[in-house]
Amino acid sequence: MKVSNRMFTIGLISSWYTSNIGVLLLNKYLLSNYGFKYPIFLTMCHMTACSLFSYVAIAWLKMVPMQTIRSRLQFFKIATLSLVFCVSVVFGNVSLRYLPVSFTQAVGATTPFFTAVFAYFMTFKREAWLTYLALLPVVTGVIFASGGEPSFHLFGFIICVAATAARALKSVLQGILLSSEGEKLNSMNLLLYMAPMAVVFLLPATLYMEENVVGITLALARDDVKIIWYLLFNSSLAYCVNLTNFLVTKHTSALTLQVLGNAKGAVAVVVSILIFRNPVSVTGMMGYSLTVLGVVLYSEAKKRSK
């Protein structure tokens, strides 16, 4: 039984890694290499798939009990989270048009830094001095990685930093807004409500900022039908990321997920370099390594301070 459970957990982690890295690389391919320059529409496809699959998983397959929204205030809180979540995903996709995956992963590793900053200013929650000290190599590593990145693009970098900050803000806001016992939602139910709200936010932005994107996509499909399959597969992978994230947390722990996430970033960097052949400098790799080391030290310092 223990061997069976262990194999099941390894399978879950492998699925989480595969879907996580897969959607990241496919986003990069579509937005940069393939030339499908519509990151808002792509994000809307992801959120549409998450809406449909979440409903099937919860309402039909009963993977978790369905939790209901209990008040108008809770609805507005979830809508706020959804809007911030939209910004983080859209900005992350936009940055992939300008920067290699390896560099976006280096910037994304600074999420703990932004989380600590937002938590301090919004909740006045202070960590132990050792925890803050561990954030120094996180930031220093990104500075080194930026200076040593051959494909550095200032606008892409700013957007990538904004995406990382929005991701951190969402996690802090989630802790604040859905902190009462009656308002807490597990991640699958939260996605069930957030994803359709995200589609509502993204639809007007898509129509205004990416004019006639549906017509352009259909025209592309007439020349190359693979674009439809790319979008369908990519959107399905986006849901798999959320599903496997929930299952890995359920069958291991949040701390294990954090450690695995650090390793995932390193794996994504190596795989992206092998696939896209983007040039990488020694300084850039040293910077990224320093950032990952800082994140590991930060996790350890947080664990010891509890």
Automatic annotation (TrEMBL):
It holds the Pfam family TPT. Residues 12-299 form the Sugar phosphate transporter domain. Keywords: Membrane, Transmembrane, Transmembrane helix. InterPro entries: EmrE-like, Sugar_P_trans_dom, TPT_transporter. It comes from the Eukaryota. It is found in: Membrane. It is a multi-pass membrane protein. One of its GO terms (cellular component) is membrane. Its main location: membrane. The keyword NAD does not apply. The chain crosses the membrane at residues 7-26, 38-61, 73-91, 103-122, 129-146, 152-169, 190-207, 227-248, 255-276, 282-299. This is Sugar phosphate transporter domain-containing protein. The lineage of its organism: Eukaryota, Viridiplantae, Streptophyta, Embryophyta, Tracheophyta.
